[in-house]
UniProtKB/TrEMBL annotation, chain A:
Organism: Cryobacterium melibiosiphilum
Protein name: ABC transporter permease subunit
GO biological process, any: transmembrane transport
Domain ABC transmembrane type-1: 65-245
Transport found in the keyword field: yes
Annotated TM spans: 16-39, 72-93, 100-123, 129-145, 184-207, 227-250
UniProtKB/TrEMBL annotation, chain B:
An annotated GO BP: transmembrane transport
Annotated protein name in UniProt: ABC transporter permease subunit
UniProt keyword annotations, A-Z: Cell membrane, Membrane, Transmembrane, Transmembrane helix, Transport
GO CC terms in record: plasma membrane
Coiled coil (residue ranges): none
Predominant subcellular localization, coarse grouping: membrane
From TrEMBL, chain C:
Record-annotated ABC transporter domain positions: 17-251
Organism, scientific name: Cryobacterium melibiosiphilum
Pfam family membership, one: ABC_tran
Cited PANTHER family: ABC TRANSPORTER ATP-BINDING PROTEIN (PTHR42788:SF20), TAURINE IMPORT ATP-BINDING PROTEIN-RELATED (PTHR42788)
Name listed for the protein in its UniProt record: ABC transporter ATP-binding protein
């Protein structure tokens, strides 16, 4: 009823149109600025030039996306499974929750990529394992926290209801706890999805085999091939969007059903 | 989960505040024990499935004893006579990185707050900008760190010359602005319709409403956002140091010492502990801000 | 209080609130609009206590929001002390209290009561003095330095009422201010409100769900009906002047008579012809 809350809801047409218009304006301004001020391509190539470069090197960019995307995916799955399992354990066993708290909070405030070099020595610098683990650790944090929050979200009235039905603890978990927590798990996954890509990519800056997007960006930049470097950057942007979009879609599906 | 509330008496009595601390220490000890146990029992070459190493190698090189890591901290960095003790070198690098992260944090927080205010004030701005802000985080812009450096080299205005550390701070701020803009926007629109109506009744303008109502009400949302931003700024600084090749910070030490790991397995762990420290200090600093703003985090109880 | 010149008592013949054939239509999705108010007219005299009562959806809260200029009517017009509602709001001619106390959780009781004074540039000593006065009026002297989360619901609501009185308004708008309180607290608050009204001589427009509350407090009870929101009948209560109303009144025969009249009207029975044709106000 309140006019204040009414104001916050943008009309659908506006919600779709406004960001698109803004995006187009920025790209056009960028292109215009590069042309008008004759900015040299090694500083900032024009968007259309980057597009052309991407088209010309599609094969190698796609290969890089496959490598980095594969690492991110493995990390995402691994981190998500670990995060959910540990969160369930923490919700069930309070002592475990207390023990995990400082470790998980430290992981949350620490640059996980810093672990990349030692992981390379632990798992072999020739394999992708270290990068997948870096991605998994990065994914683990939001998934763990969100799942735990979801599991604690059960309303007292529902818990009392289950008690009054004399429901077993498994029944209560299945009918009340899990459905309540599920949307939170997927929110955690959505946040984690882009983290997985970024982490897998920057782990490449710290060593390991070539082939991924991160290594390709640095080597293209090192050899002053800036157009190509930007094409790889564009590839990584697309990869990030694919992961985010996928997670968002799954989240939408899951929350609609529950 | 339900039974707990029904048993009021505890078996052993521990002061209420000491309990989480004790459990936390227990957790860390458990982690250490796990490390040493696996090192002792695990195969030297790691556990392999086919060609894939699924559990790490346990050689002294790959998994040094915890004692090795700790003792290494108190030895000099190198064999040179003038070398500092390792812990001191790491602490200096920590301070350097923390400084850059702080600059990035301040820039990021300023930009984030400005965006949030803009979006709160103008609905069209929210519709146009918000999706891009969300998308900006799916974009690993940190990937362009090597390219940002190239920009910096071009900037020269009179006395002012762009330095490499500024590129690092710029990337840190890019990571930091996101949580602030989202958190602040959520906080600024958080006041109850009731409170907004009241301000309308008092016939006060946007600025007064912002100052008296929206900003105080947003503190609860802002603080976690500021903490996230601090952490992101640290991560951004560490990574950007590596990819830009800036010397002096903790990120650079991580790569440098990792290269020296061959004969000195304890050494690479020192800057890692350093980065943990930087992250904790950054988060702790925001916690301190929260202490000063405690008054604004009171909940309203509607009986 | 020299800075608050706008709270001067208006000329006697200007009604506190003058509502003329007001309608409010909320546009719904796909053209399905909701008529919250349809052709409503009502006048409230200075110092008069008028309650709006009716089932949910009858538009009583909407009507109050229109008077407060929190919302704008689709048709008709509203004047408050002879001015358009918007001007009256800008001039701070009314004080308002909502169902939720709506206190700012980071301010103490004193700080909350001072808020409107602070916003309108009253100096610090003036604010302190006025707040202390009001805190005493609502009987919360011991809690002047407490924060809202340390108070019970009834106390919070008393602070909200004190806040609404801060600028000595000649009109009070109250939207179910006691709706969230238990029955005991509620009756006590009603007694206090009667006392406060007698002391301040402000006109009151009071939205409520409760029939006894409306009858006990009011000079006139406006019974409304839903879909579309209309005034069904205006019932004059005539239980005497505010200052004479006490706890005994709840046992009075006149009180029960008015009670059953209002109840019959709410239940769809037109009751004895006390008021005027629906929607038209005569006095």
């Amino acid at each position: 009823m309140s006019t204040a809350t009414e104001l916050r809801r943008a009309r659908p047409v506006q919600a779709v149109l406004a960001p698109i218009v803004l995006g187009l304006l920025v790209v056009l301004a960028w292109q215009g600025a590069v042309t008008a001020f004759a900015i040299k391509p090694f500083i900032l190539p024009a968007p259309f030039a980057i597009g052309a470069e991407l088209a010309a090197n599609l094969q190698s960019v796609l290969a890089g996306m496959t490598v980095t995307g594969g690492n991110a995916l493995v990390g995402l799955l691994l981190g998500a499974v670990l995060g959910v399992l540990l969160a369930i354990l923490s919700a069930l066993v309070r002592v475990l929750d207390g023990m995990a708290a400082p470790i998980v909070s430290s992981i949350a405030v620490v640059p996980i990529v810093a672990l990349a070099p030692v992981l390379y020595t632990m798992f072999g610098a020739g394999a992708e394992t270290a990068r997948q683990l870096v991605a998994a650790l990065a994914v683990f944090v939001p998934v763990y926290f969100n799942t735990l929050r979801g599991l604690r979200q059960v309303r007292p009235v529902h818990r009392d209801l289950m008690r009054s039905y004399a429901a077993s603890s498994w029944q209560a978990t299945r009918t009340v706890t899990l459905p309540t927590a599920l949307p939170f798990v997927f929110t955690g996954l959505r946040i984690a999805s882009s983290l997985a890509v970024i982490s897998a990519l920057i782990a490449e800056y710290f060593g390991g085999p070539v082939g991924g997007l991160g290594k390709s960006i640095t080597s293209a930049a090192a050899s002053s091939n800036y157009g190509l470097a930007w094409a790889y950057v564009l590839g990584s942007i697309i990869l990030g969007l694919v992961f985010y979009g996928g997670a968002l879609g799954i989240e939408k599906l899951a929350t609609r059903r529950t | 989960m339900t039974e707990r509330t029904l048993t009021p008496e505890r078996r052993w009595r521990i002061p209420r505040l000491a309990r989480p601390a004790l459990l936390g220490v227990l957790g860390l000890v458990a982690l250490a024990v796990l490390w040493e146990l696996y090192k002792f029992f695990g195969p030297n070459n790691g556990v392999l499935i086919g060609d894939l190493t699924v559990l790490p190698r346990t050689s002294d090189l790959a998994m040094p004893h915890l004692a090795t890591m700790a003792l290494r901290l108190f030895e000099p960095v190198t064999g040179a006579a003038t070398a500092l003790p390792l812990w001191l070198a790491v602490l200096q690098a920590c301070a350097f990185t923390l400084g850059i992260a702080a600059v990035g944090w301040i820039v990021g927080v300023t930009v984030g707050l400005a965006l949030a205010l803009l979006m709160q004030r103008f609905r069209l701005a929210e519709a146009a900008i918000l999706p891009w802000i969300v998308l900006s985080q799916t974009v690993p812009l940190i990937a362009i760190a090597p390219l940002v450096r190239r920009w910096g080299a071009q900037v020269q205005l009179g006395e002012f010359a762009w330095e490499n550390w500024m590129s690092v701070a710029l990337i840190a701020s890019y990571l930091a602005f996101f949580p602030v803009s989202i958190g602040a926007l959520r906080g600024l629109v958080a006041p109850d319709a009731n409170h907004v109506d009241l301000m309308h009744c008092y016939a006060v303008g946007w600025w007064k409403t912002l100052w008296r109502l929206r900003l105080p009400a947003s503190v609860g949302y802002l603080l976690p956002a500021l903490r996230l931003a601090a952490v992101s700024a640290v991560i951004g600084s560490v990574v950007a140091e590596v990819s830009i090749g800036l010397r002096g910070g903790i990120g650079r030490l991580i790569v440098e010492y990792a290269g020296a790991a061959g004969g000195d397995p304890g050494k690479p762990w020192a800057p890692i502990f350093g980065s943990v420290l930087v992250g904790l200090v950054a988060a702790g600093f925001v916690g301190l801000i929260g202490l000063f703003l405690r008054r604004f985090r009171r909940g309203e109880v509607n009986a | 209080m020299s800075t608050l010149s706008n709270s001067a008592v208006p000329a006697v013949d200007v009604p506190a609130v003058d509502i003329r054939s007001v309608g409010r239509i909320f546009p719904g999705r796909k053209g399905a609009s909701v008529t919250a108010l349809d052709n409503v007219s009502l006048t409230v005299a200075p110092g008069e206590f008028v309650s709006l009562i009716g089932p949910s959806g009858c538009g009583k809260s909407t009507l109050l929001r229109l008077i407060a200029d929190l919302d704008v009517p689709t048709s008709g017009n509203i004047r408050v002390f002879g001015k358009p509602a918007r001007q009256a709001r800008i001039d701070q001619d009314y004080g308002i209290a909502f169902q939720q106390a709506g206190l700012l959780p980071w301010r103490t009781v004193t700080g909350n009561i001072e808020l409107p004074l602070e916003l309108h540039g009253v100096d610090r000593p003036g604010r302190r003095a006025r707040a202390a006065e009001l805190i005493e009026l609502v009987g919360l002297t011991e809690f002047a330095g407490s924060y809202p989360d340390q108070l019970s619901g009834g106390m919070q609501q008393r602070v909200a009422i004190a806040r609404s009185l801060a600028e000595r308004p000649s009109l009070l708008l109250m939207d179910e201010p006691f709706g969230a309180l238990d029955e005991m607290t509620r009756e006590r608050m009603q007694n206090e409100l009667v006392r406060i009204c007698a002391e301040t001589a402000a006109a009151v427009v009071f939205v409520t769900h409760s029939i006894p509350e409306a009858v006990f407090l009011s000079n006139r009870v406006v019974v409304m009906s839903p879909r579309p929101g209309r005034i069904r009948r205006v019932v004059p209560v005539g239980l005497g002047a505010m200052r004479d109303r006490g706890e005994d009144l709840r046992e009075d025969a006149g009180f029960f008579r008015s009670l059953s009249t209002v109840r019959d009207l709410l239940h769809g029975d037109d009751g004895p012809a006390i008021g005027a044709p629906r929607g038209v106000e005569t006095r």
